């Protein structure tokens, strides 16, 4: 049962990721990202990281995606651009995508073949629970955590300032 759920979740994650970059409509691209994030949450559940899976759904698939949908609805779909940003991009992009896929496939297969005779990682009993994550965030990763929160605060203040400036110019 776990194997079937893993493959369904992995296909959902890959399909959602491909949908994000393949969809021309930004709204459908955001919905593909939601599918991708839910699939990742189910993969986290398979790793017995229930707190990370719940945070994935609540924070990313919930709050952040609602914000993206509002931005897409506000800005509008905007059609396909009339000019090509890089000459030959339509020919070069699929070639680079195929090359990246082959490179990643070789790397994954090589590491997977090396690990065939092993038992897998040794996961401690408290892996993924809120206490362990809180300890890591407040001890080992305190500086990056606070730096990220300050950057988010600055982005919010900047957005408010820019919106107020635009409102003053319109009046």
How is this structure best summarized?
78% of the residues lie in helices and 0% in strands. With 171 residues, it is mostly helical. Among the domains are: 1-78, NADH-ubiquinone/plastoquinone oxidoreductase chain 6, subunit NuoJ (Four Helix Bundle (Hemerythrin (Met), subunit A)); 141-171.
What's the overall average pLDDT, rounded? 82
Radius of gyration: 21 Å
Which structural class best describes the helix and strand composition?
mainly alpha
N-to-C SSE series? Answer: HHHHHH
The shape, in one word, is: globular
Number of helices: 6
Q: Biggest β-sheet, characterized? A: none
Count of extended strands: 0
Helix fraction bin: over 70%
Distance between the termini: 61 Å
- Can you identify the CATH superfamily of the domain at 1-78? NADH-ubiquinone/plastoquinone oxidoreductase chain 6, subunit NuoJ
- What is the CATH domain class of the domain at 1-78? Mainly Alpha
Low-confidence stretches: none
CATH architecture field of the domain at 1-78: Up-down Bundle
Strand content: under 5%
CATH topology name of the domain at 1-78, in short, is Four Helix Bundle (Hemerythrin (Met), subunit A)
Topology readout:
Blueprint: H1 2-22, H2 26-46, H3 50-75, H4 89-114, H5 130-140, H6 142-170
Helix pairs in contact: 1-2, 2-3
